[in-house]
Every structure is written in structure tokens, then in C-alpha cells.
Design brief:
This protein is mainly alpha-helical and 247 residues long. Helices cover 75% and strands 0% of the residues.
Amino acid sequence: MHRHLAIETWSRRTSWLHQRDARAKLAVLLASLIAISTTSMAARSFHVSSVVYAVVLILGVLSARLPIAGLLLRAAWVLPFSLTFAVLVYWSGDAARATGMLEKSYLSAVATLLFVATTPLEKWTAGLDQWHCPRTLILVMQFLYRYLFLIADQAHRMMNAAELRRGVSKRLSGLRSPRSGFQSASGAVGVLFARSWQRSEAVYQAMCARGFTGRFPSAAAPRFRAADAVFLIAGLMATIAVRLLIA
């Protein structure tokens, strides 16, 4: 199994956190994201609250028996996007706010990734459906999640092909200019999306041939157990405590 399928593999484990109801985990995730995003970056205790949020998230990773390094590295993919805005804020003379933006974006990414890594797609989308979330939005999220794997798989195939041709590339590297290298990279991106589009069309046609009517079948609503209620209450209380008492 390829490395880009690691999160899907993690979500199928059977830890205590994996067994909790998706609706409870959704509620705790939303509360955590709201608490992180509304924490004042001007407060002196902001960095203290960030450390507390990080400790709570790491405890969640440990309880789910997930690889900490792998999850934290994957969450760092959000930093290049938030770094752009942080640099602009830093140039405006507000270094503390720029640092806070990076901390908030990274903590939010870790919280979201922890949720996805402990809840299979069909369970958390079923939870959104039971919350009467618009079905069109749920369908878009389901297709986006699945098609991201198609793009990742196609990129993996292209990287393998490039590795096989590395010997030829080394012999020709001295003849290539930086401009030609940029053109090659841009061309590879174009080919990647073109092939991914073709594969996605083939997948959609196969789904229609098997009776797809525009909506994935929803799983039956699981029973909300006492352990789920305990997790929900503990998660909400911990989030509120950090937000009000520390921040």
C-alpha cells in the first residue's frame, strides 16, 4: 500500500478513540477549531494556551495509537499556505500576530487530521448526514476525498517512471537550462491532472454502470453509548477550560 494511503489505513484501526461515535468526535473537533481560532493572539498567555492545545492533541494521538511523527509531518503541509499570509503580517510590523497565525493553522490541521485518521470516511459523512448537513456538500466532500487518492496514486506512478529514467536524465542534465527544467516540471503537472481527470471519468462511468444515483448509501446510525457521552463531555469541558481559563 502506498504511503499516501496511510491516513485511510490509520482510520481503520480499533483503538478506544477509533471506537467512539463519529458524531461525538465531530462535535469535539468543531469545538476545538472554534476555540483555537477565537483565541486572542494579543493575549500574553496565547503561547501557553497553544502548548496546552498541543499537549491535548498529542494525548489524543497516543490514545489512538497513531505514529506521532507521521501525523505531525502530514499536518505541516498546511504551513506553506499559511506562511504566505504570515509573512505579509510580519512585514506589516506585527510579528506576534504572524507567529500566532502559524500556530493556529498548524494546531487546526493536527486536530482535523487526528479526526480523519480515527474516523473512516463513511462514518463521519454519515454523522454529517444525521446532522442534516446539505447532501450536496456531503457528496462533494466524498468525491474530493476519494479523488485526492487518484491524484496521489497517479503522481506516485509518474514518480516511479521518472526514477526509471533517472539515468538518462543524469546524462542530459548538463545540457539542460533552468528554463527547460521549469518547463518540464510544468508539463509534468499538466500531464498529472490530465491523467487524473481521465481516471476520475472512468471511475464515475463505472459507478453509474453499477447503479450510482447521485448519492452514496448512508450507514445505519450507530447506537450512542455511554463511553461516547463521556468522551463528548470530557472533550468539550477540556476545550472550554483551555479557552476560558488559560486564553
